[in-house]
Amino acid sequence: MQKDFRMNRRDFLRLSGTGFAGLVLAQFPNIAATAQDIEADVEIVLTAIPEQVQILPGQTTSTWRYIAEVIRGDPNSVQSTPNSYFGPILRFRKGQQVRIHLNNQLPESTITHWHGLTVPETADGHPRFAIETGETYTYDFQVINRAGTYWYHPHPHGRTGPQVYAGLAGFLFVSDEEEDALGLPEGDYEIPLMLQDRVFDADNQMVYLPNGMMDRMHGFLGDRMMVNGQADYALSVEKSAYRLRLLNGSNSRVYKLAWDDGTPLIVIGTDGGLLQSPIEKDYIMLAPSERLDLWVDFSTYPVGTSLSLKSLTFSGAEEGGMGTSEFTILTVNVDSDATSTPATLPAQLSTPNFNDAPNAVNAANPRQFTVAMQAMAATINGQSFEMTDVDANEIVQAGDLEVWEFINPPSSMGRGMGRGMGMVMPHPMHIHNVQFQVIDRQIDPDFASIWDTVREGYVDGAGWKDSVLLMPGERVKVLVKFPDYTGLYLYHCHNLEHEDLGLMRNYRIE
Ligand SMILES: [Cu+2]
Fold first, then answer.
1. Which tens digit of pLDDT belongs to each residue from 246-272?
2. Hey, do 187-336 and 357-509 end up sharing a CATH topology, with the first three levels equal?
3. Sequence ranges of the domains in the chain
4. Distance between Cα 161 and ligand 1 center (Å)
5. Dihedral sign, CA of 116, 122, 125, 126?
6. How far is it, in rounded angstroms, from Cα 288 to Cα 250?
7. pTM of the prediction?
8. How many Å lie between the centroid of ligand 1 and the Cα of residue 428?
């Protein structure tokens, strides 16, 4: 049971060593100096550091963690998460000017990306900005995104998979007035849930890529479900309404989420914030880096009820062993009557502002990006990631509305090779610096039976997304409006092993 993540300053200092952030400031006097230049509403020291954490009974586990301290502004901007490798929750308001000093205390270089946020080029965490051990990188940006469930994680080239796996990931919640007005469940009734899978050895240590190169090709899959950095996660709830804010923080695992008693899932939000109105789904596909805001009314269950959130079986990723079995993600125990009046589900959640596809500058001729996994090469349109490389097809104009089409071809091994000979696998595609709308999906006829096991689980068209699941044989069109920030940004597969193998490219906003 881990319901309340709040921790006061004294607890923080006790857990992190006496006055840790103070030590950081003493070590890096330039932090204090730059703080005078631009007025930040919130200023945070975020440190990535190795730490021993009690995760399983017995021996502690070596992890890499983010820890944070607010050095200016609202102290509630950081909610720490004791007894977990799960990073602190950052809470920002739309419109706030934020300054974050990333301090690298890891034994290798790193950089942090604010996933889903629209920020200036130098604040996006591109791998070319990676810093060495002992160095600090300062991010300055205004929070211009609407309220939503965003997150942060490392993004150094070739090492994102192992660093996230070691524990470096956390939520970043943005709130705004539109969301405030809805009276959604908050405090103890708002539950962040980060889903990850892990493998532990006999000494309670996390094992990455136990099957070597095959794991790099298919993506890492664990045999132990972790929620918020804890195993066998159980949530104690009242007979009340709850807002569950889910993030798939797994390296490569795709979940097919459903309640075990068949109750429909009520979706109120996706990657980029609240939907126009709630929708019901029997099951939902949640691919790596996707988020999901769920409304759950536990008042309909008698006290003493235990139910579970499951991942169901699906097709399309069997080569790596994904989707082949059903398992429990977390258990919910309805333990008591409501202690306050439950929130009510609003019929309308946000203002409609959707789908202007006919007005896209390339509506008749979308940019196409074909994804391929070959032995030792992961490519988009035949090219792997190079640090600053941008193709002619990867340059866009600030403010333009465009259609991008991602293609996971019937055979990703190359022309003429049939199904079963290529590497048939899902690719969750993510574009930095934007929120888009999924406007169309097509499936190759040979893959229709695979598709039938997942297609009803897409939350498309109803909300804003920055990541989209691309199943084998599938083509997905997204509608993107590029922001006014110019510069070099990334788009890539968020299967972190694929990303580290180079299934990533730059695009440039001019
Ligand atoms: Cu991929």
1. 999 999 999 999 999 999 999 999 999
2. yes
3. 9-179, 187-336, 357-509
4. 12
5. positive
6. 6
7. 0.91
8. 6
